[in-house]
Amino acid sequence: MRNNPYPNDPINMQSTDIIPPLPDLPPKPVQQMPQPVLESAAYSESIDEGEKILQEPPGQTLAFVFGKVNDFLQWFAIVLEIALLLRFLFKLIGASPDNIFASFLYALTNVILLPFSNLVSNPSLHSNQAFEWTTLIAMGIYALIFWLLRRLVRISITPPKPEE
Description:
- By secondary structure, this protein is mainly alpha-helical.
- The chain has 4 helices and 2 strands.
- The radius of gyration is 35 Å and the shape is elongated.
């Protein structure tokens, strides 16, 4: 063996010299966690195996679908309002319709603004610049429509209030 500057260091010594082997430990018992039981869940007996199968309550799936429809309506309304706001700002500052992004935005929002196209006249200062009242009116009306649709979806999934 080489000359060891730390003769009592357990790392440099052989493991059988200092550390005796560990005794066999008994395995740790595993505790079984009870399965959580939902109070509103319905159970049914399986005919073949006799085990219980968890089923969803009857109206839970429908409430989930209406909730997702409500989320989609909110998302769509936000995207629509942002697109109309961008169009309003672009028209206000006179963004060139020859630009790819501006022409795409104008073409996309022209379809949305079709019902409001000749409602009022839009005053313009230059050829590409305009203060579009129709866009502002459309933003307000579309916001109102989507708010009413979301309220309708919310009303359809909430239980009726008890009468006193």
